Fold this protein.
Amino acid sequence: MDTMLELGAPVIVAKDLRKRYGDVEAVRGVDLAVGTGETFGFLGPNGAGKTTTISILCTLLSPSSGAAAVAGFDVVSQRLEVRRRIGLVFQEPTLDEYLTAEENLRFHAELYGVPKPETAPRVEQVLRMVGLWERRAHVVSTFSGGMKRRLEIARGLLHSPRVLFLDEPTVGLDPQTRAHIWNYIEELKEREAVTIFLTTHYMDEAEHCDRIAIIDGGQIAALDTPEALKANVGQDRVEIRTADDDAAIATLGDRFGLEASVAEGAVRVYVPHGAEFVPTLFAELGVPILSVNVAAPTLDDVFMAYTGRTIRDAEATSTERLGSSPFMRRRRR
Amino acid sequence: MSTTAIEIAPVRLAGGGWRDDWRTVRVVWKRELIRFRRNRIRIVTSLAQPILFLFVLGTGLSSLVGTSRSSGIDYRTFVFPGVLTMTVLFTATFSAVSIVWDREFGFLREMLVAPARRGAIIVGKAVGGATVATMQGCIMLALAGLVHIPYSIPLFVVLIFEMALAAFMLTAFGLMLASGIQQVESFQVVVQFFVMPMFFLAGALFPLAGLPVWLSILTRLDPLAYAVDPMRRAVFLAVGVPPAAMHALVPGISWFGWRVPTALEVLIVGVLGVTLTVIAAFRFAKTE
C-alpha cells in the first residue's frame, strides 16, 4: 500500500475486520486505510461484503472480530463520536416523504446538534449545492428518484462530516441522473474537505475514485488506483464468439498456450497486443469465428483478473448473504 | 492528490449529555406533530369510528337501555368517556405503528444512525404519539355538549389530563409491541389481539358492575380500565348524578373488595406509561 504515502493522515482504518452471520462469514479479514480527502471506492458484486463492511464502519453493525476507527474514534466503543463525524447515504431512501425537503434537513440538523444560528445558512448552502433550493418547500413524495438521492447527499453533508459514506449512491437511477449525481460528488470534493467512501458495482463509477478496493467473497482482492490496477492487468481483452466454444478453448490452450474462459457467452483471452493477435487467430483456430471484439483493459478486466469472473457473472451466482444486514432490507410495496 | 484543505465554514456540533437527549426528544416529537398536521385525511377518518359509536351505537342502545333508571342519565353521556378513550386508543396505536412504517420505509434508520441515544428517540416518539392522540381526543371532546355534558373548564382540564396520560401509556404500549416487529402486516395482527380486547374490557361501553367473575378479573387486568373510570367519574360529577346512579354506573375498580382510589388509578396509568417506555427503549436499543 505504498500509495498511502501520498495521502493525508488516514481517517478510516480497519484491521482484520470480520463479520459472521451464523455459518456464513460475510467479511473475512478486511484491512484498510483511507486518507483524508480521498475518494475511496469499494467495488464488488452484490453479496461480496461491501455493505456489511460499510455498515461496520458506520457503527451500524458490530464486527465479529477485528477493529476499525473512523476520524480517530473506535467504531464499537465510541459510536456516538464516530456518528457525529460521518454522513451517510444509504442504498434505499431514508427520507420522510411527508415532510418537505427543508423540513427533512432541519430535522437532521437538530438531531445532529447543528447550532440554531448556523442551521438556516447551512441548509441553504447544501440545498443550493444539489440544485434543490427552489424545491425546498415541496413535500418529498413529489420528488423523482434522482432528486431524492440528491437531497440525501445534501443531508449527509449538512453537519459537515469528516467522512461521507455513500452506499451504492446511484443504484436504480437512469444513466443521465447517475452522471448528474457524479457531477455533484465531484463538485462536493472541491468545496468541502470531506473524505468520500463509496460502494458500487458499476465499473464506470469506480473510475471516479482515487483508489479502489476490489472486494470479492468478503476479502479485498486488490487495492490501488484505477490506473495502476488497469496497468497491472496490462493486456488487451479479446472476445470471440465461435461455433464451438469448447473446441476453441482447447485450441487456444494447445496451440497458443493461452488460458481462455467463457464469460458472458463469449470466449475470452488476454493477450499483450490484441489487434495483432486477431489475424493469427483467424488463420489458426480451426473453429469458425462468428464475431470478434478487442478491448483495452477496463476495471471489468481488472475484476476478472483478480477474481476469475466478471462482475456480472459474479452477481448472477452470488448468494444474497447480506439478507441479515440492516442495510439490506428491501423496500417492498 | 491535492491535500490543501478547503475551509467552507464547517458547522460545529453542539455537544454532549442530557442536552442532546432533550434535543432528540424535541425533534422527534416535532416531527410527529408535523406529520399529524399534514395528514388531514387521517384526522377525519380516525374520528369516524368514535362518532359512529357515540351517535349510532349510542343512540341505538339508549332506546334499549332506556334513560338509565331513575338517574336520567343518557346512555350517550355514559358512553362518552369511553368514546374519548377509544379515540385516544386508536390514534395512539396508529402513532406507534408508524415506527414500524418508519422501519419499513427507511426513515427509522436516519434516526438510528444519528448521534442520539435510542432511548431519547423512543421517548420522543412516545411523547409525540401521546400529544397527537390527545389532540385527536380534544376534537372529540368538543362534541361534549351534544351529549349533555357541560363545557366546564375544570372538567375539561381533568379530562384532557386523563386523556394525555392514557395516550402516553398506550403509545408506549404500542412502541413496546412494535420494537419486536419488523413488518407492518404482522403488527396489525398483534394490534387486533390487543386493541379491541383492551377497549371492550376497559368498561368503555358498559359499567364494570355486576359482571361474572371471569369477566371482572379480566377488566381489572386491563390497564385502560384505570383510565376510563376516573374520566367517567369526572363527567358524572360535572353532570350532577344522584349518588345511587353514581354507585350503579361508576362502581369504580376494586381489588379484593377494596376500591382503588382515583388518585391511585391515575398513578397506575402514569407509572405503567413510564415503565413501558423504558422497556420499549431497551428493546429498540437491542434490536439493531
Summary: The first helix of chain B runs from residue 18 to 38. Chain B has a mean pLDDT of 86. Residues 21-59+69-287 of chain B form one domain. The beta strands of chain B are 254-255, 258-259.
